[in-house]
Amino acid sequence: MISSLDVLPTFMAAAGADLLPLKPAPSHEDKRNRRRAEAKYGAYDGINLLPHLRGESDAAARTLFWRLQGQTAVRDGEDKLITLSHRPAQLFQVDSDLAEADDRSRAERSRAEQLYQILGEWEASLATVPLWGSSPTWNAESAKHYDQWGVRTEPR
């Protein structure tokens, strides 16, 4: 899988440059979490895709994570688990369900639980949560719009 987060490491490698060092962790962060996350996932979330683009290797099989405004997601293989602030976690098989319309979390409970565990471990490895949070007003507004969208058919 390829992510937009791969652009920086790929462009830096194409330019023959080393990745820039990260800024020091803010004083309020738990630096142990940052060190553990860097050891497990690397300092940057993206990877260098040049070997894949040159045909020297296959695209890296990896697990991708997202987190924004109290909503999270993990993609592993064809499975994607999403959590929203206003409903239970949902499991989709995105290779065959592009619109994410068929929630498989009940039918494949063990896979949903496995991905939920992986997502929780990733979140626990992150540096401290930002000092700001989502307001209940924003969460409610976001949920309202999300529910209005409904299922969208995607071109194939």
Automatic annotation (TrEMBL):
InterPro entries: Alkaline_phosphatase_core_sf, Sulfatase. GO terms for molecular function: arylsulfatase activity. The keyword Hydrolase applies. Keywords: Hydrolase. It comes from the Bacteria. PANTHER family: ARYLSULFATASE FAMILY MEMBER, ENDO-4-O-SULFATASE. Belongs to the sulfatase family. This is Arylsulfatase B. The lineage of its organism: Bacteria, Pseudomonadati, Planctomycetota, Planctomycetia, Pirellulales.
